[in-house]
């Protein structure tokens, strides 16, 4: 288990709330060279399992959620991630990339989702910025929900 929102090991703040940089995700195109991610790019690779993810589309106040999952038979998305241990606390972030054709109609970015071969390459330190580009996803609208909502109905399609 890791805390979402990467805090670099070199951060010397008094607590996690003192870290103000936005590090809940990292652009694969930039992470290798960004101060916040440079060390973990080399020595902090991880995989983040997920059943799917949501993107919201529409005007503010009337946005509609869409659920994304793999287009094939696999139930688990394996997302490229970076992890850092800060003051004994394991923290992490997920990698994102420009959306491919299966995501672009809804959002311009997507997680870097890896197939089996790409998982091994990522963990071995690959610098291939096109890794995960070919992932095919399926999406559909789901009902609006709030932060406290839970349950399987959150991924049920709606018209």
What does this structure look like?
- With 159 residues, the chain is mainly beta.
- The protein is 9% helix and 32% strand.
- The chain has helices at 38-43, 116-123; strands at residues 3-4, 25-27, 45-50, 53-57, 64-70, 77-86, 89-98, 109-111, 137-141.
- The chain is globular.
- The model has no long low-confidence stretch (mean pLDDT 95).
Topology:
Blueprint lengths: L2 E2 L20 E3 L10 H6 L1 E6 L2 E5 L6 E7 L6 E10 L2 E10 L10 E3 L4 H8 L13 E5 L18
Parallel strand pairs: 1-7, 2-7
Antiparallel strand pairs: 3-6, 4-5, 5-9, 6-7, 7-8
Outline:
This protein has 159 residues and is mainly beta. The chain has helices spanning 38-43, 116-123, and strands at residues 3-4, 25-27, 45-50, 53-57, 64-70, 77-86, 89-98, 109-111, 137-141.
Task: Name the structural class.
Answer: mainly beta
Radius of gyration: 16 Å
How many structural domains can be distinguished in the coordinates? 1
Distance between the ends: 36 Å
**Helical proportion?**
under 10%
Total beta strands: 9
CATH fold-level label: hypothetical protein yedk fold
Strand residue content: 25-35%
The average pLDDT is 95
CATH class, anyone? Answer: Alpha Beta
Question: What best-fitting shape do the alpha-carbon axes yield?
Answer: globular
What would CATH call the architecture? Alpha-Beta Complex
Q: What is the CATH H-level superfamily?
A: SOS response associated peptidase-like
Strand/helix succession: EEHEEEEEEHE
Q: Which regions are unreliable across 5 or more consecutive residues at pLDDT < 50?
A: none
Individual helix count: 2
**Main sheet record:** 6 strands, mixed
């Amino acid at each position: 288990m890791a805390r979402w929102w990467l805090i670099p090991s070199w951060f010397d703040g008094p607590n996690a709330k003192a870290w103000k940089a936005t590090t809940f995700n990292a652009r694969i195109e930039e992470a290798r060279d960004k101060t916040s991610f440079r060390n973990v790019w080399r020595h902090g690779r991880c995989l983040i399992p997920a059943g799917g993810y949501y993107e919201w589309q529409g005007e503010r106040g009337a946005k509609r959620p869409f659920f994304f999952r793999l287009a094939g038979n696999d139930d688990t998305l394996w997302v490229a991630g970076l992890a850092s241990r800060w003051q004994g606390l394991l923290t992490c972030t997920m990698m994102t990339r420009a959306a491919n054709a299966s995501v672009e109609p809804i959002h311009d970015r997507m997680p870097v989702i890896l197939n089996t071969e790409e998982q091994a390459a990522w963990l071995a330190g690959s610098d291939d910025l096109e890794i995960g580009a070919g992932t095919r996803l399926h999406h559909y609208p789901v009902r609006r929900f709030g932060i406290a909502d839970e349950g399987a109905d959150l991924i049920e399609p709606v018209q």
